[in-house]
Specification:
By secondary structure, the chain is mostly beta strands. It contains no helices and ten strands. It is globular and about 40 Å long. This is DUF1934 family protein.
């Protein structure tokens, strides 16, 4: 059975002393043991992009589709290959996830993770992400 709810999404991304915050409204739905959050990103100079976040036990997968396409998977203690594709070109990413904690119940709540990002083999930074999902 699929439960569906409208949600408010807040994503805080910290790297070094820089913090960015992204807010959106979207849909949360469940299939089996997985929770999905789907939302449209704010329009930017890169165009229209829809993001799907798949929350599993001890794993997060983010898929972006539209004018920007990207895929990243976060699993603590593992390195995963992903990509980021814009009209200007494709960049291969390597994600080395160090931590993943969740205080969320069926997707509602706070999930945090920390990872090192490598773009085309070069260290691009260490990131701390806080994902807050609230029912509307």
């Amino acid at each position: 059975m699929t439960d569906k709810a409208r949600v408010r999404i807040r994503i805080e991304s910290r790297s070094g002393s820089e913090t960015t915050v992204q807010k959106a409204r979207g849909d949360l739905y469940r299939k089996g043991n997985h929770t999905y959050i789907r939302y449209e990103e704010e329009r930017s100079e890169l165009g229209r992009t829809v993001t799907l976040i798949k929350l599993e036990e001890n794993q997060i997968r983010i898929v972006r589709q539209g004018d920007v396409q990207a895929e990243q998977t976060f699993v603590p203690g593992e390195k995963r290959i992903g990509f980021y594709h814009t009209p200007q070109g494709r960049l291969e990413l390597e994600i080395d996830t160090h931590e993943l904690t969740s205080e969320a119940e069926q997707g509602i709540g706070i999930t945090r993770w920390k990872y090192d990002l490598y773009a085309s083999g070069t260290h691009a930074g260490t990131y701390r992400i806080k994902l807050l999902i609230q029912e509307e």
